[in-house]
Amino acid sequence: MKGFSLKNKIIVQLSDGSFYSGEQLGEIFGISRAAIAKHIQGIQELGIDVYSVKGKGYKLEQPLELLDLEFLHSNLDTPIEVIPVIDSTNQYLLNRGDLTSGSVCVAEYQTNGRGRRGRQWVSPYGSNIYYSMYWRLEAGLQAAMGISLVIGIALTEALEELGIEGCKLKWPNDVYHNQKKLAGILVELSGQAGDAANLIIGVGVNVAMPEGVEGIDQPWTSLNEITGGQSKLRNQLVKVLTNRLHCCIEIYETQGLTPFLNKWHERDNFFNQQVKLVMGSREVYGVCKGIDATGALLLETPNGIEPFIGGEISVRPAI
Ligand code: BTN
């Protein structure tokens, strides 16, 4: 994005939540007040709430906890890249060819963040976590279904490690809190049958999603809502999540899903509930009975308990 580095510097300056006059900012960055006003407009277009008060200057609606490269690199062996603006962190890693397993990138803002099933992932600047990790899965494509569930479990464990209790999983890997979506996972795969699979594990977590955000078509929550905005969790979560993912994926690679079945069960948001599973044009109604060791969803239907490996569940009333 043209001229972004100056915008980024202005955001960093404003991120403490104090007032800065146009004159002050102009002096700091060596440009005119009018040029500052233009940049502020551009900053607002990134989804950041900046307001101005006559005689006082510009101020962020809420202070931002920006990604802190030094903190993220301390005591972490993983290569982790912090990018201010990118189309999609998943796409960025997909385009890189030279990655080692476990490499991570995080961004402040995604211009084209993507969700499952071709949906957009709303990604305002500096508010949430937009995270991708590359992993080479030696067991190949057939093991990828299970791993996507393991990632959801690793994310809930990382949140619990930071004191966020009550996170639940919606098959295959959405994280819910109080029946509202807190985080989503998009795993993108490439590889050939019989060979290792290349995985891009994309994780989006709502941390400080601005209240008036548009474009989200379902009830959502954020870490700020859950904690009352008390904790600065963005950088910590990136770090804890990276460690958890490494650890959980390594267990999965040697032992499969079995060690995770109980963990899933404890966090299953829909266990014993009537759900509707939509697979393309096919709809199945049944009672949710958890997952099996392949990661398939188990539904109790008039035919008994059946495994399903694709589709999306919802709690719309069963008929
Ligand atoms: C979902 O639909 O629930 C999955 C959302 C995944 C969003 C994350 S944000 C980081 C990574 N980059 C993307 O473009 N998408 C994923």
What does this entry look like structurally?
With 319 residues, this protein is α+β, with helices and mostly antiparallel strands. It has 3 domains: 4-60, Orthogonal Bundle (Arc Repressor Mutant, subunit A); 69-265, BirA Bifunctional Protein, domain 2 (2-Layer Sandwich); 270-317, SH3 type barrels (Roll). Helices cover 30% and strands 28% of the residues. The chain has 9 helices and 14 strands. It has helices at residues 4-14, 22-29, 33-45, 69-73, 89-95, 144-161, 223-227, 234-255, 261-267; strands at 50-53, 57-60, 80-86, 104-110, 129-137, 167-170, 174-177, 180-191, 197-205, 274-279, 282-291, 297-301, 304-308, 312-314. The strands form 3 sheets. Strands 3-4-5-9-8-7-6 form a 7-stranded mixed sheet, with helices on both faces. A 5-stranded antiparallel sheet has the order 13-12-11-10-14. Helix 1 (4-14) crosses helix 3. The chain is globular. It starts with a helix and ends in a 5-residue tail after the last strand. The model has no long low-confidence stretch (mean pLDDT 92). The structure holds biotin. Biotin is lined by residues 88-90, 110, 113-116, 119, 121, 130-132, 174, 184-186, 202-204.
Key features of this structure:
about 325 residues, alpha+beta, BirA Bifunctional Protein, domain 2, SH3 type barrels, seven-stranded mixed β-sheet, five-stranded antiparallel β-sheet
